[in-house]
Amino acid sequence: MRATFLDLQDNSNPYNGYAVENPKQLFDILATMSERAPFCCELAAQNGFTLNFGLGGAFSHAQFSRSDGQPPYLLAKPSVPVSLTEEVEFLCGDTPTPIPNEFILPVEILIPILQHFQNFGSRWPLIEWVAL
Q1: Torsion sign over Cα 17, 70, 77, 95
Q2: Among 14-28, 34-48, 49-63, 75-89, which is the least confidently predicted range?
Q3: Is the pLDDT confidence value at 34 over 80?
Q4: Residue boundaries of the structural domains of the chain
Q5: How far apart are CA 101 and CA 119, in angstroms?
Q6: If we measure between CA atoms, which residue out of 1, 123, 125 comes closest to residue 62?
Q7: Looking only at Cα atoms, what is the longest distance across the chain?
Q8: Which terminus, N or C, of the chain has the lesser number of Cβ atoms within 10 Å?
Q9: Closest CA to 61 of 78, 45, 49
Q10: CA 85, CA 125: separation in Å to the nearest integer?
């Protein structure tokens, strides 16, 4: 499924607005940003749903919602919480956005979430999604 990529932290990112056709293209794009401070991105699928996600080293987060901005807003919650002493902040429009520890994902869990969204435009069914 085609999805449009958007870097919510860096407006000058040359991949902003790029139509991603498959997970490999997406992961190639994300690999170019692996050294950045934790930041937020978005994938908007053609079916009217969006996956906002944050990347920051070994940690990430994911939020699934409608592309029109209407609720529900669903955050991925790992079955085994990441053990951190403080919240992780992801930059979004130069604003540090704290994500509660209960919604911090190891990047290894974000990978199948992204793959599933890229392929189907829907939530990965093997993780709990909590409405805000």
Answers
A1: positive
A2: 75-89
A3: yes
A4: 3-131
A5: 28
A6: 123
A7: 38
A8: C
A9: 78
A10: 29
